[in-house]
Amino acid sequence: ALAHLDVASNEVGAEGVGKLAAVLGKCKALTHLDLYGNKLGAQGTSRLAEVLGECETLTRLDLGRNGIGDEGAGRLAEVLGHCSALTRLSLS
Q: What is the mean pLDDT of the chain?
């Protein structure tokens, strides 16, 4: 089972993270997701936020250098309460 997914600095973008988000909820053992430096923007962050609550085992999430802006941060804030296992969130 996939526990650590590192796609840092791969220019995934909003469209790519949308496709990734479609399967993240099925990764029941995922504990660490690194999306650092992928130009997600607010749109990509919003797509990711839609499924974060399903990632019950996620303990680490790195979204640094993605230009998430106020809108993306707001969407994250809405779902973080459902991420009970999350102990580390990096946005820098």
A: 97
